[in-house]
Amino acid sequence: MRGRAAALVPGLRRGRFARVGLVAKGLVATAAEGDAPKGFAKLSRTKVPRNALLFSCMFLLAGVAAALTWVTTISAPCFIFVWSIVLVSYLVYRERRPQLHAGSKFKIPGGTFMPYVVLAFSASSSGR
C-alpha cells in the first residue's frame, strides 16, 4: 500500500490538486497564526486538515461551475446561429420550391409566419 501512495504523490502535486493542497496549507498556516478561523487549523485523527481541504474544495467546485458557465456562454450563440440557418434554409426552400413544400407531409406549425417569429426572437435574445 505504501508504494501505491508514494506513486500517487507526484500526480497529486500537479494541476488542480496542487492548488487545493496549497490553499489548504495556507489556511492552516493563517489559522495557526490567528489570522483565519481556528477551525481551519484543526487536524483530523489522521493529521489531515479536513476543514481547510473541504473549504478549498468548495472553491474548486466554484471553478467547475465557472467553466460550465463559460461553455454554455459559448454554445448558446452557436445553437441560435445553427437554428437560424435551418430556418433561413426553410424559408429559401419554401420560396424556391413551392410545389415540393405543398406536397410535403412534414410542415412547420404556423409555417408562413412562425419562422420569422422565431428568427426575431433569436435575434433579440442573442444580443446583450
Concise structural overview:
This protein has helices at 2-12, 15-32, 50-96, 98-103, 114-126. The chain has 128 residues and is mainly alpha-helical. The longest helix is centred in the middle third of the chain and has 47 residues, at 50-96.
Structural features, described:
This protein has helices at residues 2-12, 15-32, 50-96, 98-103, 114-126. The protein has 128 residues and is an all-alpha fold. It has one domain (2-126). The relative contact order is 0.07. Mean pLDDT is 79; it is low at 3-8.
Q: Any low-confidence stretches, pLDDT <50, length ≥5?
A: 3-8
N-end to C-end Cα span: 55 Å
Radius of gyration: 28 Å
Q: In DSSP terms, counting alpha (H) and pi (I) runs of 4 or more, how many helices?
A: 5
Average pLDDT works out at 79
The major pleated sheet works out as: none
Q: In the residues, how many domains can be counted?
A: 1
Main structural class = mainly alpha
Q: Kindly state the percentage of residues in helix.
A: over 70%
SSE run: HHHHH
**Total beta-strand segments:** 0
- Percentage of residues in strands: under 5%
What would the principal axes of the Cα set say about the shape?
rod-shaped
